Amino acid sequence: MHYRSREVVQVARQVPGTRAVGYDCDVLVIGGGIVGLSTAHAITRAAPGTRVTVLEKEPGLARHQTGRNSGVVHSGIYYRPGSLKARYAVRGAAEMIKFCAEYGIPHAVTGKLIVATDRSELPRLHALVQRGRENGIPVRELGPAQITEYEPEVRGLAAIHVRTTGVCDFTAVARQLAEASGAEIRHGTRVVRVDRRPGRGVAVLTARGDIVRGRVLVNCAGLHCDEIARLTGDEPGMRIVPFRGEYYELARPELVRGLVYPVPDPAFPFLGVHLTRGVDGSVHIGPNAVPALAREGYGWGVVRPREAAATAAWPGVWHLARRHWRHGAGELRRSLSRAAFADAVRRLLPAVEDGDLVRAAAGVRAQAVLRDGGLVDDFLIREGPRTVHVLNAPSPAATASLPIGREVARRALGALADG
After folding, report:
1. Burial 223-252 (b: 16+ CB within 10 A, else e)
2. Would you tell me how many other CB atoms lie within 10 Å of the CB of residue 302?
3. Distance from C-alpha of 260 to C-alpha of 248, rounded to nearest angstrom
4. Are 53 and 217 in contact (CB under 8 A)?
5. Mean pLDDT across the stretch 5-12?
6. What would the pLDDT profile of 77-135 be if each residue is shown by its tens digit?
7. SS3 of 102, please?
8. Are 76 and 397 in contact (CB under 8 A)?
9. Statement: residue 4 has pLDDT above 50
């Protein structure tokens, strides 16, 4: 592997001048999730004839964040007005539903309830109403009797109904984006080295020993995006800290008609355990949020000491732990105890019994954490020479993937034109 690592540099030096290098593509995208594929799709639509190659380390597309979430098309109500998350989620939700309808991808606009179950949550619920209106989202305020009109088994002091929320099959969306883009998709191509040189573009070495050359590199590597950024020579100024989100499936799906959420705590970066009726009619409950012991740590048994040590070495992790240890302790308890998880669900859905919860596949959120422990709370896109890095794209990135893809494509095409 050391010999191969030198080879990627030597090949890039063989012939001076950009045209003599022999590029495999114009834009090389690392990551076959929905953001990377949306970027490829946006590039080929904006600039027909542009050659795009997508490198995906897995044997198939959308194997991580894209394919391991609750499938919710978010309205954008939670996000700070004017932020990328707010603008792209509102715009992206409408575009996602339209895209699904155009290509016959399973989807539904169900609306959702955000329910306050304690008086202390009422001010936060009212603040969400205001935020939703500032973001241009239709919101209806409900009293206890009106809650049961939407969800007969749900109980709460007050709620808001957000009618633009929906669900879809994001994995099917990703596959359709790949097909419609016309990009070359290379599976099983894990990038282990990157060589970037002025006037020569970017050459990457894969774990299989292949060398792939492009004029511009787009980093949409999700859980590994900070590592890829450092391989290019760019310091991202953050680290991805993986948080596992665990789900249960509801054995009695008839208890829930649509989507039901608790009122989020603004001091904690996650939305809390919620109820989601998917496009297949099943109801998923979750996720919680616990630190994962590997970037792809989908269970407590998945431990990668080197990755865990690298995460622990980042100062921001310890600052974060000190700030949120009480929340973290509760999340850990719900991870280890189905009864504790069921107790959290019963705040919204009193009829749930412990035996109604059946373990389902978990996901891992790629959360960017700054050195001081601050969580990057918006989408983060940065540029380097001949490179565009997507460094923070957790939820609602799937919802917002079409406008995110256009923005990344705009930057990539700008870099292509410059050089």
Report:
1. bbbbbbbebbebebebbbbbbbbbbbbbee
2. 16
3. 15
4. no
5. 38
6. 999 999 999 999 999 999 999 999 999 999 999 999 999 999 999 999 999 999 999 99
7. helix
8. no
9. no
Q: What secondary structure letter does DSSP report for 249?
A: E
Residue 344: strand, helix, or coil:
helix
How many CB atoms sit inside 10 A of residue 123's CB? 11
pLDDT greater than 90 at residue 418? no
List, in order, residues 6 or more apart from 309 with CB less than 8 Å away.
none
- As separate numbers, helices (DSSP H) first and strands (DSSP E) second, the chain gives 11, 22
Rounded mean pLDDT, 154-179: 98
Looking at residue 331, its amino acid is: E
* Displacement of CA 393 from its chain's centroid (Å): 5
Mean pLDDT of 7-36: 69
Asked if residue 263 lies in contact with residue 347, where contact means CB atoms within 8 angstroms, the answer is: no
Euclidean distance between CA atoms 407 and 106, whole angstroms: 26
pLDDT at 198: 79
pLDDT at 21: 60
Residue that the structure tokens 């950009």 belong to: 18
The answer to whether 364 and 244 have CB atoms below 8 angstroms apart is yes
Cβ count near 291 (within 10 Å)? 20
Handedness of CA 410, 411, 412, 414 (dihedral sign): positive
Q: Report helix, strand and coil shares of the chain as percent, to nearest 5.
A: 35, 25, 35
Query: For residue 107, what are its two tokens?
Result: 């989807």
C-alpha dihedral (95, 98, 103, 107), degrees to nearest 10: 100
Please state, in angstroms and rounded to a whole number, the distance separating the CA atoms of residues 176 and 186.
16
Closest listed residue to residue 363, CA positions, set 394, 400, 341, 385: 394
Pair of tokens at residue 126: 């009212």
Report the sign of the C-alpha dihedral through residues 285, 291, 296, 299, in that order: negative
Radius of gyration of the chain, Cα coordinates, nearest whole angstrom: 22
In the beta sheet, which residues pair with residue 286? Answer: 274
With both helix axes pointing from N to C terminus, report the angle between 401-418 and 34-46 in degrees, rounded to the nearest 10. Answer: 50
